[in-house]
Amino acid sequence: MTIEEVRVVAMPAIERPGPGEDELLAAFFNVDLSLPEGYRAELIEGEIVVSPPPDGDHEDAIGRLLRQVARQSTAELYGVGTKGIVTPLGHFIPDATIGPVGLFRGMESWSEPDGIVMTVEVTSTHPNRDRDQKRRGYAAAGIPFYLLVDRSKGEVTLFSDPGDGDYRQDARVPFGKPLDLPTPFGFTLDTSIFT
């Protein structure tokens, strides 16, 4: 299936009972399997979204963040990229997914978020998806923390306390200012890595 065909298959973000949902999910998995290397498909609130490979600055931000998490967290945590997560609002692929060491071993490509401590998104071409739809999806899935590295705004936001379909708390700092990460992280994130 080509990217042009994906646009035809994508449906608006409304609830559809019965076969409509099944057809959309089947189309989504078909697109996911036929994408060029490096591209990824997500199903976000009823819409199939295809993203190109990220730029180097995006990947550098993820790498530097995961390095801090692995080295400084008080708990034994690590992060992976491109882990498919099933949420109540769709099938999402965070830029990074963080959990206890060994959590991801044996997981299917698309898995429930059980045990995931934090998801991370670094904004790129469509930052509002990361700021809104994905934030609500991760909260609805009960993922304790969501870290948004917003490159266009020059700030990092840690969302926490998921409930009622969204996160109820957030801590926001501009790039370069420290951001305290609570337990199980237990360290202060150096956000100058994003500048």
From TrEMBL:
Gene Ontology molecular function: endonuclease activity
Keyword Nuclease: yes
Keyword Nuclease: yes
The Putative restriction endonuclease domain, residue ranges: 35-191
Record keywords, A-Z: Endonuclease, Hydrolase, Nuclease
One family name in Pfam for this protein: Uma2
Protein name as catalogued: Uma2 family endonuclease
Organism: Streptantibioticus ferralitis
Lineage: Bacteria, Bacillati, Actinomycetota, Actinomycetes, Kitasatosporales
